[in-house]
Amino acid sequence: MIDTYETAHYVFHFLKDSLAQRDILQISEGQEQCFERICNRLNIKYSEKIGYWFYNSPQVLGNAFFDGALCNGVSITDAQDDDVGKVVSLSGEKEDSFVVEPYSIHAVYEERIKCIGPHEDTHVIAARLFEPSSAFLCEGLAMMMDGSWWGIENKLWARYYKDTGKLFPVHDLINCPEDAFYGLESGKTYPVAGAWTEYMFQTFGNEKYMRFYCGDGTAQVATDVFGRSLSQICREFEEWLSELPFSEEQRRMIDLKI
Known about the structure:
- The protein has 258 residues and is α/β, with parallel strands linked by helices.
- It folds into 2 domains: 2-127, Glutaredoxin (3-Layer(aba) Sandwich); 132-257, no CATH class.
- 52% of the residues lie in helices and 14% in strands.
- The chain has helices at 19-22, 24-42, 58-65, 119-129, 135-146, 154-163, 170-174, 178-183, 186-204, 206-214, 219-226, 230-242, 248-257, and strands at residues 2-6, 10-15, 50-55, 73-76, 87-89, 97-99, 104-108, 148-149, 152-153.
- A hairpin with a 3-residue loop joins strand 1 and strand 2.
């Protein structure tokens, strides 16, 4: 049986007697804090309530959206999304079925996996403003709000990949087709996207970066907004990475994660 809990900006849905139900006050307080932080950082006003659905396992969520492939979380950021209107289930059982709504978040919440925080919320909130065709830009915004990958800062991952010659060229990632981007190893794309976005916000400010973002991240938009070429900005990003403090201990921590 599905139960709900409503806050100022969310309607949470979860299975009765589930771990999500037990923790819902803590979850809701955390997500409201994320909501405020996202809107303030992106300078976005968001008035609609976000539907948040908690599933009991990655298998169930994967069956609902990805033909059985394991999944921890997904956001529906478009009213025209193919999944809108689909009937899915929180538990895999018919009695826990519901219809997928636009601008909603679907996440696993169980003992091992608790897919909460700002990532999927950023996708939904930003999509009300604009959703670029570049998956790198979309994930970069969400990863900037996360701040880290596997508990290690995004920028340290990017520095590590640069030092080891494994850094994908950012210019290529921005222009990478969506299917191709998501086919790459996420550990080498997501934290780099977050680090790039953090660098851009720090260097140019959120107003200019969001103009670039809403301009679909093209080379011409970069020149118009920032007054320099995208290629030059990418080189300067790599120079910024090289100047970051990066200890041997931090390097070893990443080695252990890979």
